[in-house]
């Protein structure tokens, strides 16, 4: 610990540094105000003892100056008897406290300890605050698997362009998160980012929501409405659940993509819009096209840059990192610091198949943090479907379809699933399947699963 003692009285300086260095402080001294500032800059001490009355620059001036240089270092003022007013002024300027001459060394010791303690706490609060804002910004894509890294890489490469992006992925895989990342990493980041859930509104409402309408365009259109495309001008629009869009709305959307123009419902006026389109769906759009439920031309217009987010079960490597991230997030949010998870509970999370993907994982952790009586989350706080891997129960649910199954296909699919669930850990996969590792390897060869990547 470094301490700077500034006092023009030689004896005082000597007495103080003597005692303080015996207590283990590294001491620096100054005999006048200017030297004090110089020493402060040079050594950046942990605490400062500062005499109010000094030549060249008095204590108040020195205090002002060093608070400007670094206002988190505590300064204790030393004042002559009867100089309380100046001491109070110093406190107003940010001094930590003051002692009056003559003083007992014990008084100084207590103040130094207190000052250091408060400084540590302040630093901790600042760190937590930083962390909280980093986490609550929530725009961070967490993960270290090659699959998610590829997604992040693609996001970075396309963000700066104006190209239309189509984000594909199962429910809860992070499609909206990726859409956010694209907009907020683009040059449009200070312009509006407008989100529309195409699945949430009936057809006619969705159209007027997207393109706006004129007064009297239809019953209930009591005033003009500006649509989301117009609102998003200069920025980006996120068309979520695009697979739910009706055919007629698809036609209108196609026009926006082609002409970069819209017409409000009930108007013939054409309005130019400059909007970057990011669409997302958990549907297999290509299949919808084949089934005639989604326009092929629109599909190709949207599918300029597809970003496919793999389901969590295909990147189980990310689970521990995500768990850590959500633990931190919900610990902070619920004011329960430093929550951890037991190894066996983490193992359960790692082998579960996560049909609801990251959203499901997030919910599980949030719930566990709330339910956990102690600092460590155990299996007791995890939902039964994750903890119970009772094979019998699951087998009971097997029903032979009326048109039958191909036993080989079934076996191959189960082996694949077991390998997916265990990140290709053959011992673990064999255990899940109730066969020996040797048998597993034999069957993997049989089904051409030997060289999976
Ligand atoms: N890689 C990730 N890192 C951190 N948080 C993530 C990640 N992926 C998803 N999340 C979080 O999981 C939740 C679900 O993500 P999001 O809403 O983006 O998914 P989605 O694909 O849009 O789901 P849905 O299809 O159900 O709308 C969000 O709270 C999101 O912040
Ligand atoms: Mg979503």
Give a quick summary of the entry.
With 453 residues, the chain is of the alpha/beta class.
How would you describe the overall organization of this protein?
The protein has a 5-stranded parallel beta sheet, with helices on both faces. The chain has a 5-stranded parallel beta sheet with strand order 7-10-13-6-14. The chain has a two-stranded antiparallel sheet with strand order 8-9. Helix 13 (319-333) crosses helix 15 (357-371), helix 18 crosses helix 19 and helix 19 packs across helix 20. It has 4 domains: 2-133, Rossmann fold; 157-309, P-loop containing nucleotide triphosphate hydrolases (Rossmann fold, 3-Layer(aba) Sandwich), CATH 3.40.50.300; 313-387, Helicase, Ruva Protein, domain 3 (Orthogonal Bundle), CATH 1.10.8; 392-446, Orthogonal Bundle (Arc Repressor Mutant, subunit A). The longest helix has 33 residues, at 105-137. Helix content is 49%, strand content 14%. It is α/β, with parallel strands linked by helices and 453 residues long. The protein has helices at 10-22, 33-43, 59-69, 84-92, 105-137, 146-159, 175-184, 203-211, 228-231, 247-259, 285-290, 296-302, 319-333, 343-351, 357-371, 384-387, 391-396, 407-421, 426-433, 437-446; strands at residues 2-6, 26-30, 47-51, 75-79, 97-100, 165-168, 193-197, 212-213, 225-226, 236-240, 261-263, 270-272, 276-281, 305-308, 340-341, 376-377. The protein contains 20 helices and 16 strands. The structure holds adenosine-5'-triphosphate and magnesium ion.
């Amino acid at each position: 610990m470094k301490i700077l003692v500034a006092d023009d009285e030689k004896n005082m300086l000597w007495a103080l540094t003597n005692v303080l260095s015996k207590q283990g402080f590294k001491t620096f001294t100054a005999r006048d105000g200017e030297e004090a500032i110089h020493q402060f800059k040079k050594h950046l001490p942990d605490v400062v003892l500062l005499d109010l009355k000094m030549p060249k620059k008095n204590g108040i001036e020195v205090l002002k100056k060093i608070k400007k240089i670094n206002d988190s270092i505590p300064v204790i003022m030393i004042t002559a008897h009867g100089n309380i007013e100046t001491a109070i002024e110093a406190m107003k300027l940010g001094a930590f406290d003051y002692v009056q001459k003559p003083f007992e060394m014990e008084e100084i010791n207590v103040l130094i300890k207190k000052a250091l303690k408060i400084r540590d706490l302040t630093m901790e609060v600042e760190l937590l605050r930083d962390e909280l804002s980093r986490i609550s910004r929530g725009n961070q894509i967490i993960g270290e698997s090659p699959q998610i890294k590829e997604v992040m890489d693609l996001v970075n490469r396309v963000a700066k362009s104006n190209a239309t992006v189509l984000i594909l992925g199962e429910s809860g895989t992070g499609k909206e998160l990726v859409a956010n990342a694209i907009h907020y990493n683009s040059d449009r980041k200070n312009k509006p980012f407008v989100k529309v859930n195409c699945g949430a509104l009936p057809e006619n409402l969705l159209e007027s929501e997207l393109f706006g309408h004129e007064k009297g365009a239809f019953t209930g259109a009591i005033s003009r409405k500006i649509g989301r495309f117009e609102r998003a001008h200069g920025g980006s629009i996120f068309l979520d659940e695009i697979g739910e869009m009706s055919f007629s709305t698809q036609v209108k959307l196609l026009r926006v993509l082609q002409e970069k123009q819209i017409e409000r419902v009930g108007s013939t006026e054409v309005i130019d819009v400059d909007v970057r389109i990011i669409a997302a769906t958990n549907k297999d759009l290509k299949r919808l096209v084949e089934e005639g439920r989604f326009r092929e031309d629109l599909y190709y217009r949207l599918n300029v840059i597809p970003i496919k987010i793999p389901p969590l079960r295909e990147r189980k490597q990310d689970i521990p990192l995500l768990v850590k991230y959500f633990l931190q997030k919900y610990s902070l949010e619920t004011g329960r610091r430093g929550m951890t998870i037991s190894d066996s509970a983490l193992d359960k999370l790692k082998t579960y198949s996560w049909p609801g993907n990251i959203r499901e994982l997030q919910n599980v952790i949030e719930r566990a943090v709330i339910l956990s009586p102690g600092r460590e989350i155990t299996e007791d706080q995890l939902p039964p479907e994750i903890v119970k891997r009772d094979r019998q129960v699951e087998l009971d649910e097997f029903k032979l379809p009326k048109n039958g199954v191909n036993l080989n296909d079934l076996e191959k699919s189960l082996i694949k699933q077991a390998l997916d669930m265990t990140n290709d850990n053959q011992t673990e996969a064999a255990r899940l399947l109730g066969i020996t590792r040797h048998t597993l390897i034999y069957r993997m060869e049989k089904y051409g699963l030997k060289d999976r990547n």
